Amino acid sequence: MPTASERIPAAVRPLVSERARKTLDLVEKFVNEECLPADPVYHAQLGTGATRWTYPPIMTELKTKARSLGLWNQFLAGHEHGGAGFTNLEYGLMCEQLGRSRTASEATNNAAPDTGNMELLAKYGSEAQKKRWLGPLLEGEIRSCYVMTEPDTASSDATNVQLSIKREGNEYVLNGQKWWISGAGDPRCKVYIVLGKTDPNHADKYKQQSIIIVPSDSPGIEVKRMLSVYGYDDAPHGHAHLIFRNVRVPAENIVLGEGRGFEVMQGRMGPGRIHHAMRSIGAAEEALRWLLTRANAPHKQPFGKQLSEQGVILQWMAKSRIEIDAARLIVLNAAAAIDAGNAKTALVEIAQAKILVPNMALDVIDRAVQTHGAEGICQDTPLAYMWAQVRTVRIADGPDEAHLEQLGKKENKKAAEARDLIQRQVEKTDALFKKYGTKELGPCPRL
Amino acid sequence: MPTASERIPAAVRPLVSERARKTLDLVEKFVNEECLPADPVYHAQLGTGATRWTYPPIMTELKTKARSLGLWNQFLAGHEHGGAGFTNLEYGLMCEQLGRSRTASEATNNAAPDTGNMELLAKYGSEAQKKRWLGPLLEGEIRSCYVMTEPDTASSDATNVQLSIKREGNEYVLNGQKWWISGAGDPRCKVYIVLGKTDPNHADKYKQQSIIIVPSDSPGIEVKRMLSVYGYDDAPHGHAHLIFRNVRVPAENIVLGEGRGFEVMQGRMGPGRIHHAMRSIGAAEEALRWLLTRANAPHKQPFGKQLSEQGVILQWMAKSRIEIDAARLIVLNAAAAIDAGNAKTALVEIAQAKILVPNMALDVIDRAVQTHGAEGICQDTPLAYMWAQVRTVRIADGPDEAHLEQLGKKENKKAAEARDLIQRQVEKTDALFKKYGTKELGPCPRL
Amino acid sequence: MPTASERIPAAVRPLVSERARKTLDLVEKFVNEECLPADPVYHAQLGTGATRWTYPPIMTELKTKARSLGLWNQFLAGHEHGGAGFTNLEYGLMCEQLGRSRTASEATNNAAPDTGNMELLAKYGSEAQKKRWLGPLLEGEIRSCYVMTEPDTASSDATNVQLSIKREGNEYVLNGQKWWISGAGDPRCKVYIVLGKTDPNHADKYKQQSIIIVPSDSPGIEVKRMLSVYGYDDAPHGHAHLIFRNVRVPAENIVLGEGRGFEVMQGRMGPGRIHHAMRSIGAAEEALRWLLTRANAPHKQPFGKQLSEQGVILQWMAKSRIEIDAARLIVLNAAAAIDAGNAKTALVEIAQAKILVPNMALDVIDRAVQTHGAEGICQDTPLAYMWAQVRTVRIADGPDEAHLEQLGKKENKKAAEARDLIQRQVEKTDALFKKYGTKELGPCPRL
Amino acid sequence: MPTASERIPAAVRPLVSERARKTLDLVEKFVNEECLPADPVYHAQLGTGATRWTYPPIMTELKTKARSLGLWNQFLAGHEHGGAGFTNLEYGLMCEQLGRSRTASEATNNAAPDTGNMELLAKYGSEAQKKRWLGPLLEGEIRSCYVMTEPDTASSDATNVQLSIKREGNEYVLNGQKWWISGAGDPRCKVYIVLGKTDPNHADKYKQQSIIIVPSDSPGIEVKRMLSVYGYDDAPHGHAHLIFRNVRVPAENIVLGEGRGFEVMQGRMGPGRIHHAMRSIGAAEEALRWLLTRANAPHKQPFGKQLSEQGVILQWMAKSRIEIDAARLIVLNAAAAIDAGNAKTALVEIAQAKILVPNMALDVIDRAVQTHGAEGICQDTPLAYMWAQVRTVRIADGPDEAHLEQLGKKENKKAAEARDLIQRQVEKTDALFKKYGTKELGPCPRL
What we know:
Number of strands of chain A: 7
CATH topology of the largest domain in chain A: Butyryl-CoA Dehydrogenase, subunit A, domain 3
Distance between the termini of chain A: 70 Å
CATH class of the largest domain in chain A: Mainly Alpha
Order of helices and strands of chain A: HHHHHHEEEEEEEHHHHHHHH
CATH architecture of the largest domain in chain A: Up-down Bundle
Helix content of chain A: 40-55%
Strand content of chain A: 5-15%
Strand order of the largest sheet of chain A: 2-3-7-6
Number of helices of chain A: 14
Oligomer: homotetramer
Radius of gyration of chain A: 25 Å
Structural class of chain A: alpha+beta
CATH superfamily of the largest domain in chain A: Butyryl-CoA Dehydrogenase, subunit A, domain 3
């Protein structure tokens, strides 16, 4: 089989450096030989009882191996802090490989939400904040949460956020609820990046919010319960419903300054969506690999026929191939657009990737599930869990429908020019009709 | 509005030369300012009666303008014969612009089936054949047909072709039927490139066929009738059902040699599919432009609301934007794959484009039709005709289903490697379970 | 093959009388043995030239036969005027048979728009109006148009209609434009039922409109042009774009009274939609029959395999069967709802049929087209024309999207009750938790 | 809100007796007022630890209430053994109500797989078998499993089953593996109905199988593990992977006789599929109810707009309404077909229901999930669990694709008649052409 670097789509091959190709192949090899085999062991080490919310020993082994191979923090695109200097497109290709395994992103310290939090701290953090939190995160010693979503508001619109952050003397006091705080189940999670309101009555609704750093062991934080995703608890990472009751943190924990939460939050987005999308593409590729394997399993020939001899299954393979490849090009094009400009100039391309990829991946994974029959919906393949993971992407960071509406409005802005163009053409057409003395086609002869 | 060259997707921008960008913008301008306004006049000049199968005068004007602008024969990628030397990707981008208009491809001498026929003659023709037929075709003085499909066989599988080509002395004698001979209605169509069987009993079923050049005015050719496409006769081009009765042509009209028809036919394919696909993308873009215009038409506000204020219509805009852009990347990637290798090494990419594009374009055009209501299904917009044209692409050159099955079989060839990979991972997983002494998750506690 | 009456779905069989079953089988036999064979002759008798907008002689033969068999005006459900007294469900089953052929509805005098116009005249017409127009229509001596849609407004919302109907002495004077006036091409079309505004400034926007009867040969009516539907002109019926310039009609031609146009218009709808939907179901069944035939055609075996041996084609057959049968039940259920109440109490059921059926039929017909390949898109099967006909149904009488939005709003009205129900259940759940002392599931053990 | 009996579709209303309507409304009331409120308590009483695979006390309360209301064993259609004598259609309507709640089917002793097993015992069991097992099952004292599926074969094709049932003296000895043995986790599950091979070499491959009754506490049965469904363990019911090692049962436990397993198995199917499908329809209705509630939740207005004001959400409501109603009619029609004949004469109708319903329900439920956002995928609504449950239906009892292929083959059997009909029509058409002297439409005038 050609390696990952040999399979880079022809259209973008010129954009990938020799160094990135080598790293890409190394990532693929690491995922194939270390991470995918470790996934079931990781799952089993969690167990169902007392050990479920702990740190599975095999992760330590994987992290050590990854680091020794130089596969560490590739996400830090072109940053200082030991950033690897890969372009978004190059790192995106690596994310596809990481996305095939449950353990690979964490093993190489490229796992969300740490990556976004590290970027945030690197970009907006004070020196003290960097020293205390960014350093250990870059070393993979601790983990973090991004604490934004709230249960009782439509918080996909961040202006609705209600958690109160009140200045009292040299401290800020936090009160409110948050949920879907992913990673809060991990015993190594030491820090929360929290979005709340410092000035809920500010005339400019984009200046009411602030972002503040909260140690996860601060008194007053209660984990009300853990949320499941289609029956999966995602241990030990987990998704917490948190209650903040008079949680006090030093004033210097505010990021960038009071009232700048919205600005910081927006700076955090962008490339992350690309990388998340590429992970979903990796999941889809992995699902297709399972589909191929099952469709040719010698002991599974219902009514005497191999599934891969059936036209319908062959169509699933073909459609999956087309859909995965089209989605990958959409994401890589968005990455190229960021690399050629920035996340703001690439908004349309990023939105396309955000919308298209999870819907595509869900279709491909579901075909793999269906091909496996009962085996596909249980714990015997990674497929059912993969599907549940990808299903969240259609909701996280704003539902499809919100992004479609925004993208539609952007497209609609071209309407005036489209109308003008058609109008000018109509006028020219009229002139041509006159010039040639051509008659418009009339009614039926009888009339 | 940014020009066509400014809208080239970020991912492939590095692959387009400065010269190609300039030509691309010139093509766009020509299509916008000359061809689209001329389309309704072209249609009207055909009329409904005696003039329907003639050469509309406005085409002469367009061809003269195109040639004076240097927009001529761009399809001749890197060939001698005055070829412009554009890559497939570069010419593909131009095809997208040409595909927005009914007249643009012919006006610039880039129209099918002439382009494929010219490539065939340039590649396989004898000097005499080139002189007599290729020259006038390159000059746009005459037009041609590609005569392959037959009514009574499943001739998408070319080995089924039955038209008989029999050697008699210094001549070949043709007998049989052909249909869907596109372009046969045009009075300027002077030559047929005909596929038939010279040796129907040859043991190798790929050596039974030959391709032969037949002047369109040869005695014995009867146009039995013209075929319609969803009610459109496609005049003056048209699609003919032909009968060959003892049609005699000189022996030197055979192309490349007896029994080499299959080989010649296969050489003719490839890039043409890319260019055709790009034209359909142009059609989809044009349809979206119409959709935008109608959704904002001030006099069309059912129940007091502009269509563009409705969420469903905004979703149509957004989805159309995503689907068009994804399909374009798939085609450009196929073009890049041909440019980096050849049509054979890019088979998978070409098949993806062949399958994906018309299905996408039909969806987009149908949304534009639906947005227009009754206006969309009649002659008042280019949409209904456009839809019918693109609908043929799902059938021409083999139906979707045949291409999907082939592509599925190609994907299925990866099954062995997929299985081996999973198998090796399972073994490694077992080893890890042992190493760590981890237990697989067991049954429920009760049991 | 079981007859039409034997194929009535089990669920509704008890609703069909013995008499209706017999008539239904007679209709099927008439369509099979007379109408379907006559369709291509009808088409050919129209020709392409001077005879195109005339009355094909074979229609006279069909009408005579139909009448002699007692197959005439079955649509007149339970009315006086010689109405056959069938229920909507019974007549609906007959419409399915009629819808399989291009000629059958007219041959049995059950063709739109005459049926709706006859119902309108029977229900709202004065005795004089009935005598002059309803009589000859019931006899099939003349035909009629329903003149409502306008080119320059969003007239799917009838309050937007702008054609002016002004009283002057003992006459009304009409000025304005109308289009999509179906049937206006037929030389036997003698009367127009016209919707316009008599009082455009009336405070109640539903009282501004009136309906008036206009002889088709009234001076001042110009047929500006005929509109095509995907390339089809639908001759000799046709769809006209009409201009009314000071068209004068006697005051007694007003229907029911000035300002009652909206009321009359609404009374005209309802059952007609059911019958139209059943005709589309007949078209889908006929398309499936063609699909089955082609998939087993002995001379069409691409790559050596009968299409009906391919899993994908078998799935098309199965899905088509399911989708047709589900859509038929939806329509029959709407008919049963009208029969059990009236068109107003069955609004939801009628809307369901209006939306579901054409979308289903387009899918089925398109599968049949694709199965036929090039043969499917031209004049050699009824499929392409059928598709174009059904495509109009997604637009006529309001686009899908308008009906979906209305239906959505109706469903949404149940929200309050749904919320209350869920709310009461939540309260009961809380009580049960207390009663049992059960604890809600808490956080992960670590926390 | 109208009651369940008032909402019976008009088309089938005449088929539902007064008695059934009353019971139906009682079932709805019981589900609304008792079961739906009990569902979260049932879930919580299971806990996450030692109590997970036990019998939640609230079920006892529900069963007592159900029985006191006379809501017990309604499934026993027209049988002796205290059967309620409802038709399949009538009981189907009740199943829809039961399917809205997690607890309702068991609370009324209408839960799978017991219902099918009770029918099997009632139909094929010996008197002793009935006394020992059927009695307690009818009383709801014990539960049962249906043990058919195997992990290492394509056992959707029952001829592939491999578990060995060997006669040894007065006993049978069972060896082999089974999985997806639903209900095996329940402590009250006392009996397994097992399909295996008594004569694996029998020439008739439908006579190799036997069905035998095995007490669940028989020595030699190991629960290897419990299978999860998208992360759900379905406790306390559960899905077991069982190993049979020399499990011995008395010879009289064989059902109907050796070699008659296939026959018994086929007799078990049929109506069960209808009732299962109706439960999924109930789930879809419940999901739509949640969707309506959320779309109008006052505290959830992203970007200042209620979801129910958005066109896309309104379309979801409308489409869901149409799709649910169409699917319900398909199932009720199948039930009516069984009631009018039997499960064999209604094979096509049953297959339609089997295929259509889960696909429809998954779409509707997924729309409800998406409308809820993050709330929809976790434990805070019944939606995610409901989705996972319904997802299994596309696989259980044979995957969609197998049923589609079978249904396609049945439809394809009509091809010969379709061809004959078309052929006869072509001949008649030819005769008509001659009779009228009509010419077929020829080529373009030029030619």
